[in-house]
Design brief:
alpha/beta
Length: 322
Amino acid sequence: METRSPYLNERWPDAVWDVSGAFAYDRELLSFFDYCRLLLGFEPFHIVHGAPLCLWNSGRVMQHLLRSAEEIRAAGLAYEARKIAVFLTFSNQELREEHLKDPLCNAICTFFTRNNPTGRNTVILASDVLRDHLRREFPQLRLISSILKITKMGRKGDADAYRALAEEYDEVMLHPDDAFNFDMLEKLEEKDRYIVLINEYCIRNCPIRAFHSQTMSQMSLNYTGYDDTEFERRRSTNGCMNLLTLLASKDKGVLALSTPEIERLYAMGFRHFKVQGRGAPNAGPISLDLLRLVLGRDTDDENAMHRNSQMFWESILPHAEP
């Protein structure tokens, strides 16, 4: 019988954690993985998602994601060595045929086709044009329907829409509002085919979600010249920048799931949980979410999560010169 690490969170022992930060916070994520494996006796995640700044990307259109070819290659080889699958967030919904020739995006797909020891390297996408291109040119890569796909369809809360996407893709991202739609979720078969985003910090029932997604996709295609004035105007009155709204509003409160809500989804049969880090200024929020999710609960006489968190950060900080 396999011995489980005493540090592994017993609430959801078979959960699959899908962690943000690829090509942004690789050092911290890899250090956290090695720390848990070597010192705590378990591997905290086996999937990392993200993408460098490029035409096919969307949702992570940020300057600090500019990466050289060598940086992308080095990160990919590091994940490959640990058998961590890479899920490329190529979820731009505004792509046209001419964008499919982009050399950087195609080179990235070529690399992760060739360096794929788990067979689970994947593209998360929202464009039918890109879907057809990937199936033709990179059939070894798995395909996941993005949140942007169900959002653009305007079909959140629709079990039939999710079933249709599950027929078309290897896995399907649930709309964040549907993570709380337990009656609808009960109707879905093969619940391990669906991915739940558990720490979405946007507001519930956001009226500008579709516009926001479209804005990010358009910005990715014109990073230096896109005019986001209208988006900023709408966001300023939307409530998503207001702490009181996020924490206290019943209708617009933050979409992040509580521990009982994750336990309920786990009991229903969902196993693939996505931990996002979009917009995070550094790896701190992602690492803290990982520590909260994968480490065991505290005991009466020991704050295990705090102790292991402190040990982890101490392990990667540069040592002071004597």
